[in-house]
Amino acid sequence: MTTPPASASTRGALAAGACYLFWGLVPIYWRQLHGIDTLELIAHQHVWSLVVLLLLVAVQGGFGRVRAALGTRRSLAINLLSSVLLTTNWLIYVWGVNHGHVTECSLGYYLVPLVNVAVGRFVLHEPMRRLQWLAIGCAALGVALLLIQLGELPWIALSLAGSWGAYSLMRKRATLGAVTGLTVETLLLAPFAIAFLLWRQHTGEGALSHVDARMHVLVLSAGVITAIPLLLFAYGARRIRLSTLGLLQYISPSVQLVLAIVLYDEPFTAARAWSFACIWLALSIYTIDGVRAQRAATRTD
Hints:
Layout: H1 6-31, H2 38-60, H3 63-69, H4 73-98, H5 102-122, H6 130-150, H7 155-174, H8 178-202, H9 213-220, H10 222-237, H11 242-248, H12 251-263, H13 270-300
Helix pairs in contact: 1-10, 1-12, 2-4, 2-8, 2-10, 3-8, 4-7, 4-8, 5-6, 5-7, 5-12, 5-13, 6-13
């Protein structure tokens, strides 16, 4: 395995860290739009993201890759399914943020790495190490504690982790780059988003008919809000080790958790504290195992 130059690794780590910090702070953006219907917000995100992404694809000269991805039934089906999964994830996330469930959204994204391991084992039949099994067990215990003490499943967290895990599986099978893949996914559902927004405007229920200039700017900024972390992630992921990227990804849910408690005064009960403790223990075990496995692989190269 070739180690990236120090300067490139540093720039990559900074870019990836900035990406996850941005994702962690993005609830602040969505909370400004809490008065707008969630489905309409996601439709706006689709449309304005597509504008930004098409500009990026044009700069990169990637329209050939986009056409190729739409050229076969298999590719079309995979990208359509991944688009639906990503949109579902965004719908649940934005609804959760705007209805006072930022803590549970944070829990969902803490669970994502462990869900990915489980998907790899039970769907792709990848072997699992003992510590990975232990990590998943600790995470399951954390969810069970919430179920027992709160009397209900943390459905937002589980839905976010599950939909993102399934989306990651589809992206793995699509084998497209970050910008190209997201462009194809956005393009496939854009006609439905545009039709929905036109219908909302026609019936007089559309947000752009009733909000002030500031809110117009915020709504139309959805494309940029989506594109900035994507570009930072694409830049950083190519320049740092996967283990480093795995550690940095915990920045996002950690920042969200701080926002939930400090900025939005969401309760952090004893039940939630014990549940998060189990999740953090699971992630610590998972991370240690991943670092050890990568070092062992490096020694054998």
